[in-house]
Amino acid sequence: MREAIAIILIFVGTILMLISAVGVVRLPDLYLRMSASTKSSTIGVATILLATAVYFEELGVASRAIAIIIFLLLTNPVAAHMMGRAAYFNGVPLWEGTRYDELRGKYDAKTHGLSGSDRAPELEAAFDTTQSSSVSKTDL
């Protein structure tokens, strides 16, 4: 029974990874390609690792597989966000069919921070990187 469950999970994982690969090849711009590659491939790898944990039925293998799944679910979206943000700062063009660019005119080119955000003014002052810090390098 466990072999059948493992085979089904591997099949689902490979289908999701195939969808991810097709999305990377077929989608028109960097941002959509990153979305396809991070979402479906992360879930695809997670299901294959889950199949590994089911098939081997050992605590060591299962705990490592679950730890890797948690690590992937935590790091892949953050990495994709940072790459997308860097691409937007560097002027990578959006697809011409994109209807909305909600960030246009809201990024400060010097600080790479959002201008005109909905944060409270006291938070804006706390996160302002242009102000000098009261802690010097010698204090550290």
Provide tags for this entry.
140 residues; elongated
Structural account:
There is one protein chain. This protein has 140 residues and is an all-alpha fold. The protein has a domain at 2-89. It has helices at 2-26, 30-56, 59-89, 121-126. The longest helix is centred in the middle third of the chain and has 31 residues, at 59-89. The protein starts with a helix and ends in a 14-residue tail after the last helix. The mean pLDDT is 81.
The main pleated sheet reads as: none
Helix content: 55-70%
What's the oligomerization state?
Answer: single chain
Global outline: elongated
Nearest-integer average pLDDT: 81
The residue ranges in which pLDDT falls below 50 over 5 or more consecutive positions are: none
* Rounded radius of gyration (Å): 21 Å
H/E element sequence: HHHH
Distance between the termini: 59 Å
Number of helical stretches of at least 4 residues: 4
Count the beta strands: 0
| Strand percentage | under 5%
Layout of helices and strands, plus pairs?
Blueprint: H1 2-26, H2 30-56, H3 59-89, H4 121-126
Helix pairs in contact: 1-2, 2-3
